[in-house]
Amino acid sequence: MTILGIETSCDETSAAVLQKGRVRSNIISSQLIHRTYGGVVPELASREHERLIVSVVDTAINQANIQKNDLDVIAATAGPGLIGAVMVGLCFAQGLAWSLAKPLVPVNHIEAHIFSGFIQDHPGHEAPGERFISLCVSGGHTMLCLVQEDLAYSVIGRTIDDAAGEAFDKTGKMLGLDYPAGPVIDRLSREGDPAFHDFPRALTSQSRTSKSYRDNFDFSFSGLKTSVLHYINRHDPAFIEQHLSDIAASIQEAITSVLVEKTIAAAKKYSVRAVSIAGGVSANSGLRQKMEKACAQNGLHLCIPKAVYSTDNAAMIATVADLKLSRGLAETNNYDIAPFASFAYK
After folding, report:
1. Same fold for the domain at 2-116+310-326 and the one at 129-305?
2. Which CATH superfamily is domain 2-116+310-326 in?
3. Region of poorest pLDDT, from 37-46, 106-115, 130-139, 333-342
4. Residue range 129-141: average pLDDT?
5. What is the tens place of the pLDDT at every residue in 168-216?
6. What pLDDT was estimated at residue 30?
7. What is the mean pLDDT of residues 98-123?
8. Beta bridge partners of 14
9. pLDDT band of 139, cuts 50, 70, 90
10. Closest to 344 (Cα-Cα) out of 90, 157, 10, 108
């Protein structure tokens, strides 16, 4: 089966071709225009998707060395995401599928992240298995899912306020870092001292206020943002500049330690033997190293997609379509699909 995946949920225009379960091409065009505004501007994102979608899809098909008529299935993100951005990719996919008389599979963007550990682009890739804990962590979402057999899953924890990626970007903005600030904090942290300052870690064993954290897999990062703001306001700019790497490392330590602690606790509670992390924040080197160490200490198999598959990409869209089709779980032949307004927590 040859599947074309299309992803346009936010500010990446992406198309990928999957053949016999393996990635043959995965084209991602990131929109740099948003850096001027310090965040994603929805209307500009939609316009950029309109400008890029045809060339990105053509490049993915050409790189896979196939023709459009060789496609068996078209899969596209149907949400959640920026509604205008989602509609560009979804409408394009609908038109292409209809013109080629091919099945169309709508894919939930968050589910695609959850199952991105199944993306295969080389022999010997080891997927997380049929039962595992998934940490999905990005700029818009932070959640823990218990994944069962046949792609069934349940959300066992979610952020009650801000996502981890948002915490990275917003605290980075407070420090005067360029957008997106998450990768900049990651880079600075490699030269800083993570113990320089003890920022709060809500709803964990290290929380100063919470007395009830056991079996609580929810997240909270709003307090961290407030703490960073107060810390910056208490010190003069010269001090902040002098210790920028140390402050960045301390912020990263606070965020990643919460993510790791709750993920490992969830794996123990539900007696799983595998953990998967996905979403843009899973590309963070500090999180990867900390999770690798924790999983090794607890005898857990850790599955982390390559960095290119951690952020928004079409390979994960095509992969979910392939997984669902192989199990008879995919809806097809519907060319009039309304976009998903939100992620339906199960």
Report:
1. yes
2. ATPase, nucleotide binding domain (3.30.420.40)
3. 333-342
4. 90
5. 999 999 999 998 899 999 999 999 999 999 999 998 876 655 555 667 8
6. 85
7. 91
8. 7, 28
9. confident
10. 108
- Gap between the Cα atoms of 260 and 173, Å rounded: 24
φ, ψ at 302 (rounded to 5°): -110, 130
Q: Which of 74, 50, 60 is nearest to 15 (CA)?
A: 60
Determine what percent of the chain is predicted with pLDDT higher than 70: 93
Domain ranges of the chain: 2-116+310-326, 129-305
Q: Can you tell me the distance from the alpha carbon of 172 to that of 247, in angstroms, rounded to the nearest whole number? A: 10
Q: Which residues are registered as beta bridge partners of 106? A: 76
Within 13 Å, how many C-alpha atoms sit on residue 112's CB side? Answer: 32
Spatial CB neighbours of 343, under 8 Å, sequence gap ≥ 6: 80, 108, 109, 110, 141
Query: How far, in Å, CA of 184 to CA of 248, rounded?
Result: 9
| CB contact set of 3 (below 8 Å; sequence gap of 6+) | 17, 18, 19, 71, 72, 73, 74, 75, 105, 318, 321, 322
Whether 291 shows a pLDDT value over 90: the answer reads: yes
Cis ω before 305 (30° cut-off from 0): no
CATH number of the domain located at residue range(s) 129-305 in this protein? 3.30.420.40
